[in-house]
Amino acid sequence: MDVTMAGLRVLREVAERGTFTAAAQELGCTQSAVSRQVAGLEQAVGVRLFDRFPGGVRLTAAGRAFLRHAVTALDALDAADRELRGAEDDSGRVRLGYFSAAGPVLVAPALATLRREHPRVRVATRERTTPSLVRALRAGALDLALLSSRPPHRSPDIDDPPLHTEPLLEDRLVLAVPADGRFADRVGVTAQELADEVWIASPSRPGEPLLGVWPGLPGRPRVHHASRDWLTKLHLVAAGLGVTTVPATLRSATPPGIRLVTVADLPEERRRVSLVRLPGPTAPPVDALLHALRRHAADLAD
């Protein structure tokens, strides 16, 4: 098997990003260069590593198996490079991914606690969508991910080996409305009353949900503003420019000018926050972060 390190790095980047184009942008090269690297790697190993689809690519079973070995090889070479250069040991580093709403009420306070109690542990974070976080876990780019799910809470992917999933917090969805708007004195609204509302939502891609619009709402929502940042969405609500959905745990972090209400005549929307990682033993720095996240999740539950 004659493979190059450049090919292995391209493999990992494509697996994490989900498209040749996104991988090329991250690597600073052209899409055709990435495509050639993948084709050369598939020829060298003698199997197809990716299934191609109109919206991107997905690892085959052989590709997933090969990626696990590629990540081990790349990590070992990166460690050797740091040692030879006399660079700082990264054994105390943890890479955490999370969905946006978890940042202010769970990730930030947990990291503050970790910094006080374990100052040698260094955490690098990234905020992404669920599909992106799962790909990053599989590609070895993350050690842990905080994911949000709806009932019946299936595994976020069907690949092998199955991801280790630990339920952390039960939450529910609420509606953020302007405090001086027509729902100002209400604790609940109806689906019919929301029919003509302007919605503020996160931009979505194929395979990703439209976050910010109440699930199951009849008709086609009028989405006039799109942002992935929850704080931007809430400030747009406070300015009277529309409504959006948020987890109830964000109540303590909402800016002035907002009321949180329920949708009275539609089923309650439950959400579960889970810690997800690859199976196997965890290193002490990862354990320290896990402990801090569990403690602050318990505080939110109370």
Mean pLDDT: 90
Q: List unreliable stretches of 5+ residues.
A: none
Helix count from the secondary structure assignment = 8
What is the strand tally? 12
The level-1 CATH class of the largest domain:
Alpha Beta
Tell the overall outline.
globular
Order of helices and strands: HHHEEHEHEHEEEEEHEEEH
In whole angstroms, the N-to-C terminal distance is 55 Å
What value does the Rg take, in angstroms? 22 Å
What is the number of independent domains?
3
Q: Tell me the CATH superfamily of the largest domain.
A: Periplasmic binding protein-like II
Q: What fraction, in percent, of the residue positions are helical? A: 25-40%
Topology:
Blueprint: H1 5-17, H2 20-27, H3 31-45, E1 50-53, E2 56-59, H4 61-85, E3 93-98, H5 102-117, E4 122-127, H6 130-138, E5 144-149, E6 164-178, E7 188-189, E8 198-201, E9 222-226, H7 230-238, E10 244-247, E11 258-263, E12 270-277, H8 284-301
Helix pairs in contact: 1-2, 1-3, 1-4, 2-3, 5-8
Question: Overview of this structure, please?
Answer:
The structure is a single chain. This protein has 302 residues and is of the alpha/beta class. It has three domains: 5-85, Winged helix-like DNA-binding domain superfamily/Winged helix DNA-binding domain (Arc Repressor Mutant, subunit A, Orthogonal Bundle), CATH 1.10.10; 93-169 and 271-301, D-Maltodextrin-Binding Protein, domain 2; 172-269, 3-Layer(aba) Sandwich (D-Maltodextrin-Binding Protein, domain 2). 37% of the residues lie in helices and 23% in strands. The protein has eight helices and twelve strands. The strands form three sheets. Strands 3, 4, 5, 6, 7, 10, 11 and 12 form an eight-stranded mixed sheet that branches. Strands 1-2 form a two-stranded antiparallel sheet. A hairpin with a 2-residue loop joins strand 1 and strand 2. The longest helix is centred in the first third of the chain and has 25 residues, at 61-85. It starts with a helix and ends with a helix. The model has no long low-confidence stretch (mean pLDDT 90).
